[in-house]
Write a structure and sequence with these properties.
Strand order of the largest sheet: 3-4-2-1-5-6
CATH architecture of the largest domain: 3-Layer(aba) Sandwich
Oligomer: single chain
CATH superfamily of the largest domain: Phosphoglycerate kinase, N-terminal domain
CATH topology of the largest domain: Rossmann fold
Shape: elongated
Number of domains: 2
Helix content: 25-40%
Distance between the termini: 9 Å
Bound molecules: adenosine monophosphate
Number of helices: 14
Length: 397
């Protein structure tokens, strides 16, 4: 398979699926350019090797055709600045103007296409629409990991028109390489830390990880479904009664596979879901009615820190408690520091993924102290579940 580092771009036009779905304020200024910045190395590589770049992305969720607030033209000033070249713009991603601009592109030039989702054909994965995009260029690069779990026209369908000239960009390559470091032949012991509100969104991940990890640490609201499944009394804590059986089966499967599964032994309690609530602390298997567990307790934190310190690879997804509220953030904060410390002191490979654990790592300013923070969100979770992502498959096959 060709890679972005081996491909000869000279004189070629590369159409690059980027993820420029950045937040804009009311003046249409970019409030967080992280996603754009992440795509710059791939774009610059094409330009440096004598190619021209045609950039395509979605922005927001337009409902019926073009809407000014979702126009990618708002990104032009910033993009021209970071690429240090004037970026051209086609105000329709397909059609005459896009074809004209694309055909006249010289090496080193960059063309940005208007929002792909102004056409419903994009999310429908329409082949004719994908062909029109493909016809603009000689080579296809997918660098939008965040949409790799979607079989959209620009993320997967388009690849068939480039049987020998399709590549992963650097973001895609990095995400796959780093997630594989915990999923494929990891350094052991491998520990997965799973938290967040619900078991329902995570059960497939739990099942897939039980086949792979040495230790499985459970926290967050989902812990109470496990505790109740084991016969514990959980008061008014978050519960998914329809998943009690599933949680119990996961515990049984972990035992069968010799996976150490850690479930909190104590919890920080509140008498309502508020930072101003009265608080208490209890054995997590014996919570009185009228109280709910909103964080893991001290004994649990101490045990989890010990397991983390003795792990060579760590995957963390989901907070340990309601970390957005200062009275219930301690568990998440301590785990974040323990993961950072394992990275620094033991050279453990630590991967953080999923929106809220990334938010936690950012909140405690530890982003540079862990091995890799996945930007993928849903795509990363589906990858960990063991699913083949359409955006990856389309390039590989
Ligand atoms: P998720 O999107 O499933 O990863 O869930 C993240 C959310 O779970 C965060 O907003 C946390 O506030 C919330 N959460 C974590 N622990 C608890 C808990 N014990 N009870 C209720 N919500 C929780």
């Amino acid at each position: 398979m060709q890679t972005i580092d081996t491909f000869d771009f000279s004189g070629k036009k590369a159409i690059i699926r980027v993820d420029f779905n950045v937040p804009l304020n009311e003046q249409f200024e970019i409030t967080d350019p992280t996603r754009i910045n992440a795509a710059i190395p791939t774009i610059k590589k094409v330009l440096k090797e004598g190619g021209a770049a045609i950039l395509m992305s979605h922005l927001g969720r337009p409902k019926e055709g073009p809407e000014d607030k979702f126009s990618l033209k708002h990104l032009l000033p910033y993009l021209s600045e970071v690429l240090e070249t004037e970026v051209l713009f086609a105000d329709d991603c397909i059609g005459f103007q896009a074809r004209e601009l694309a055909s006249k592109l010289s090496p080193g030039q960059v063309l940005l296409l208007e929002n792909l989702r102004f056409y419903k054909e994009e999310t429908k994965g329409d082949e004719a629409f994908a062909k029109k995009l493909a016809d603009l260029s000689d080579v296809y690069i997918n660098d939008a990991f965040g949409t790799a779990h979607r079989a959209h026209a620009s993320t997967a369908i388009i690849a068939q028109f480039f049987p020998n000239d399709k590549l992963f960009g650097y973001i895609m390559g990095n995400e796959i390489e780093n997630i594989n470091k915990v999923l494929v032949e990891p350094q052991r012991p491998l520990t997965a830390i799973l938290g967040g509100a619900k078991v329902s969104g995570k059960i497939e991940i739990i099942n897939n990880l039980i086949d792979k990890v040495d230790n499985l640490i459970i926290g967050g609201g989902m812990m109470f479904t496990f505790i109740k499944a084991l016969g514990g009394k959980i008061g008014n804590s978050l519960i998914e009664d329809d998943l009690l059986e599933t949680a119990f089966e996961a515990i049984e499967k972990a035992k069968e596979k010799n996976v150490n599964i850690y479930i909190p032994v104590d919890a920080v309690l509140a008498d309502e879901f508020s930072n101003d609530a009265n608080t208490s602390h209890a054995n997590s298997y014996n919570i009185e009615d009228g109280w709910m567990g909103l964080d893991i307790g001290e004994k649990t934190i101490a045990k989890y820190k010990e397991v983390i310190a003795n792990s060579s690879s760590i995957l963390w997804n989901g907070p340990m408690g309601v970390f957005e509220m200062s009275n219930f953030e301690k568990g998440t904060k301590e785990i974040a520091y323990a993961v950072a410390q394992a990275t620094q002191d033991n050279n453990s490979f630590t991967l953080i993924g999923g929106g809220d654990s990334v938010a936690a790592i950012n909140k405690y300013e530890l982003i540079d102290n862990v091995s890799y923070v996945s930007t993928g969100g849903g795509a990363m979770l589906e990858y960990i579940e063991g699913k083949e992502l359409p955006g990856i498959k389309a390039i590989k096959e």
